[in-house]
């Protein structure tokens, strides 16, 4: 059975939800107050707070509180494990496809002889 990185699973789980991805897209433009993040979603504040909690647990955002105002900012470095994993998968599949291509080319040459 393959080993699974629990942090990577947490990261992909957080990214699986479209609301959380839209929050991250907004935060890529700069820090934002929770109310600013909640407005475009149409969701109630407690629901948005749960989404933010998932993002924070995955390490994708950091929050600060100044009085009653909570501000969120993206932590793009948290995506590094996902990118590393995806790059490894890409390399594996490119190598497999290269071997398949070589096999097909060789088989075609043998057939033509």
TrEMBL record:
**InterPro entries, per this entry?**
ArsR-like_HTH, HTH_ArsR_DNA-bd_dom, WH-like_DNA-bd_sf, WH_DNA-bd_sf
Q: Which domain of life is it from?
A: Bacteria
Against CDD domains, the record matches this protein to:
HTH_ARSR
Which Gene Ontology MF annotations are present? DNA-binding transcription factor activity
One of its Pfam families is HTH_20
HTH arsR-type domain span: 1-96
* NCBIfam families named in the record: HTH_metalloreg (NF033788)
The protein, known as: Helix-turn-helix transcriptional regulator
């Amino acid at each position: 059975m393959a080993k699974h990185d629990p942090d990577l699973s947490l990261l992909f789980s957080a990214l699986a939800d479209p609301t959380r991805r839209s929050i991250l897209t907004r935060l890529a433009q700069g820090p934002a107050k929770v109310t600013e993040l909640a407005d475009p979603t149409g969701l109630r504040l407690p629901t948005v707070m749960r989404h933010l909690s998932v993002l924070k647990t995955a390490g994708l955002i950091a929050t600060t509180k100044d009085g009653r105002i909570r501000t969120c900012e993206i932590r793009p470095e948290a995506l590094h494990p996902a990118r590393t994993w995806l790059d490894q998968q890409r390399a594996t599949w490119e190598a497999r496809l290269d071997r398949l291509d070589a096999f097909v080319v060789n088989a075609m040459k043998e057939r033509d002889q």
